[in-house]
Amino acid sequence: MAQAFFGGIHPSDHKAATNKKPIETLPPPAHVVIPMSLHIGAPCKPCVAVGDYVTVGQQVGEAAAFVSAPVHASISGRVTAVEPRLHFSGVPVMSVVIENDFSDTPCPSIRPPANPDSLPAEQITELVKNAGIVGMGGATFPTHVKIASGIGKVDTVIINACECEPYITSDHRTLLEYPDEVLGGVKVLARLFGVDKVHIAIEDNKLNAAEMLRLKIEEEKAPAEVNILHTRYPQGAEKQLCQSITGRQVPPGALPAAIGCAVFNAVTAAAIYQAVYQGRPVTHRVVTVSGSGVKEPRNLYCPIGTPICELLDACGGVDKKTFKILMGGPMMGHAQYDMDAPIGKGTNAI
């Protein structure tokens, strides 16, 4: 670590409720609501109609601009509505509603690309775009845009595994249970940006994940290095993380690329691996459900578009004294007023 970032605070991390709990698969919901806006940028345009049968991974919303990312069905079943529905931001957003047939039929067009290790950067970027990958740590900026705008300008690639918000452990558990997929994405990013080494930044309250990654890196001779940082909020914010790893400061109003850095969330790296080596789009994600009002805190693997109430029910419901439910962590999460709102690509916690 070159130097620490300026400022920051040290809240209690409250991670003990879930940091030792393995990821569990959420029981399949009866329906999902897929908003056409699951990313920063132009909303998608629906490309299915009421009555259509869709399969898992089938595109249901096409990107409407360069700064956009397509959305895909997370369950198989019949489209029952294409209309504005409540979004987790609190406003209605055009959405595709799918009734679950509980068969999990995969989209027949999903298949691993041929010779993924020899694909040029342009084709890899296109695969990332078509998979609908965005910043999975909560920012939801389309990943293909970050890659395309950074190639040739970036000399330092950073994987953000800090997970500095209290309560959230979805990234931590992903690192422990799916390190091969995270490192697979790291290798792709190293090749894309032409760097010899990718920095994996992780806070010192997740030393078991750091040790796991170091063993895997050594075993696979992966182009990566684990950087253990002090636990401090907001360590995982892009600008602060760049300063912690490189000592460089991002100028006001600028992005990390201005100082030669590109930052990707650990789960985003795993999604890149899945897209490039398995042909899989983003249809599911891990969500930590925790907090003093949750009866049985858990880490759940959920279809995108699952109503919040389904996650809460899977955790035994909430205490009657609960007065606020947030999507995201307590520092930057958004309060929810309707538990029928769906989870999105950036939903790392409830």
Principal-axes shape call: globular
Relative helix content: 10-25%
* Strand percent estimate: 15-25%
- Please work out how many helical segments DSSP would assign: 8
The separation of the N and C termini measures 32 Å
Structure summary, number of beta strands: 16
Based on helices, strands and strand pairing, what is the structural class?
A: alpha/beta
Q: What characterizes the major β-sheet?
A: 4 strands, antiparallel
Q: What is the average per-residue confidence, as pLDDT, rounded to a whole number?
A: 96
The strand line-up of the biggest sheet is 2-8-7-4
Quick structural gist:
With 350 residues, the protein is of the alpha/beta class. The chain has helices at residues 121-130, 143-150, 170-177, 179-193, 207-220, 238-246, 266-278, 308-314, and strands at residues 23-25, 31-35, 45-46, 53-54, 59-62, 71-72, 77-86, 92-100, 156-160, 198-203, 224-229, 261-265, 284-289, 298-303, 326-327, 334-335.
Structure in words:
By secondary structure, the protein is α/β, with parallel strands linked by helices. 24% of the residues lie in helices and 21% in strands. The protein is built from eight helices and 16 strands. Helix 1 runs antiparallel to helix 2 (143-150) and helix 3 (170-177) runs parallel beside helix 5. The chain is globular. The two termini are 32 Å apart. The relative contact order is 0.20.
